[in-house]
Structure formats: structure tokens, C-alpha cells
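F.,

This is the one I mentioned.
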């Protein structure tokens, strides 16, 4: 089974007056989603503004209040990491892809 690791953030760190494109640790919340068929995360924390997602296998994802990921929704490569701006209270769903 595949896994997606999600870290939720509310601010970016600032260094020398410039935002650093990463989340300020510690994360607001963290979760791991195990999936093969479409599986949703828990709802994002009320403070969450963006997330970091790391996946260990090829997958597709979808965001929303009640998202369903399919093989035609956006795709992530195995062992890749991406940041996404999100809406607090919404979720992300993942499904295995090739």
C-alpha cells in the first residue's frame, strides 16, 4: 500500500526579510494517508494555509470538501514532495496511479 505524508502549515519562515519557501516548523498538524483506491485525508486544521505532501509511490490527488482522486486528476511521481496552498477544513484524496 502507498502512503502520503502531509504536514500542515500556517506561516513561512522569514530570513533576512524574505520568506523562505518552506513551512515554519513545527507543523500545525501532520497526518499520513495509506491508499490504493481513492482515500481522503482528515480535514485540514483551521489554521492551515498550505501543506507539504510527500508520497512514496506514483499517485493522483484531488482537493475539496469531499474529494475523489482518479487516475485522470493531477499526478505525483514516486518519492516526490510538493507544497500546495489549501483551504482550511478541506481535504485531499489520493489514489494509486502508474
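My design for it:
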Amino acid at each position: 500500500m502507498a502512503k502520503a505524508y502531509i504536514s500542515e502549515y500556517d506561516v513561512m519562515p522569514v530570513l533576512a526579510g524574505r520568506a523562505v519557501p518552506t513551512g515554519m516548523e513545527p507543523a500545525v498538524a501532520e497526518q499520513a494517508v495509506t491508499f490504493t483506491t481513492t482515500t481522503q485525508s482528515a480535514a485540514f486544521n483551521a489554521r492551515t494555509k498550505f501543506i507539504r505532501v510527500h508520497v512514496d509511490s506514483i499517485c493522483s490527488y484531488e482537493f475539496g470538501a469531499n474529494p475523489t482522486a482518479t487516475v485522470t486528476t493531477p499526478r505525483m511521481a514516486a518519492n516526490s514532495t510538493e507544497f500546495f496552498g489549501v483551504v482550511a477544513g478541506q481535504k485531499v484524496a489520493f489514489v494509486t496511479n502508474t
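The first strand starts at residue 2 and ends at 9.

Talk soon.
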